[in-house]
Every structure is written in C-alpha cells, then in structure tokens.
Amino acid sequence: MTSIAKAIKALPLVAQQTHEPISEEPVFILTSSQLQEIITRAIQPLQDEVLQLKVTVAQQGEDIASLKSTERLNFDDIRDLYTAIGEIEQRQQNKGPTVQPQPKGSKTNARITTLKTALKARGGGMTFKEAEKLLGIKRNQMTKLVSQLDKRSFEIFARAGSKREKIIRLKSFA
Is 53 helix (H, G, I), strand (E, B) or coil? Predict the structure, then answer.
C-alpha cells in the first residue's frame, strides 16, 4: 500500500520531468440535452437572484411612492395650520388687546441694557442676587425688572442644587 502511495506522489514529478503536452482529446462526450441541463443548473441561482432583486426594486418603488404621498399630505397639513394661525391672529387683532402693556421707562431700559451687557460679558447666567448688586437695586425692584424682560431673549430658571436660588441667562446673544 505504501508503494502505491509513493507511486502516486511521484506522478507529478514524472509529468514535470517529461514535459509532455497535455492531450486536447475529449474527455467527456455529452448530448445536447445533457449540456443544456448542466448550463441550466449553473444559471438557475443567478436567475433566482435577479428575480429577487426585481421584487426588491418594485417594493422600494412602492415605498417611495407612499412616502411622496405622505410628504404632500404633510405640506397640506402645515399650510392648513398656518391658515388657522393667521385666522386666530386676525380675530385677536379685531378684538383688541385685553391687557395694556406697561411702557418701560428710561431707567428700566438702562437696567435691561446693563444686565444684557453683563450677561454677554460673562458668557452665561448669573443669580438674581448678583444681578441686584450689579444694578444696585432691591429684591422687589429685581422682580419688577424681570417681569419687564423680553422672554424671547432672557431665560429664568432655578439653580439645580438649590431650587430657591434663581438664575437669569440670555437665551441667545442677540
């Protein structure tokens, strides 16, 4: 048995040494139906994959169409909301303001400007006590000043560690 294994191992060496050209004679003889069957079996997985890809592309097309119709719906909803807001504003203008805003005096304007400048310089917020010292005002005057502030520019909140201490901060450096 070992002699057979040695002989098999030696075969490639013998073939390399002899340098004989490989014969181009037919090894298999197939009928056309046999060849057709081999080709069909080789191509079938590719045809299945192409079919699956076509199904995926069709599904994605349906998804895109659905998203486009939803998008149009959303734009219509937004337009309706803006129309409703406009109607509400129109009714409020016709009704007239119910609360008369108090005009700000020159002292109040100066204090707000000073406060805004100080907050910009600090790049953050400050406590009410710090603001009172900066402006040279009392606690009740600070409360009144805070009520006059534009809530779009200033933000008032309680300090995280001490809920009793209030902080004033600029929302944006406007």
Answer: helix
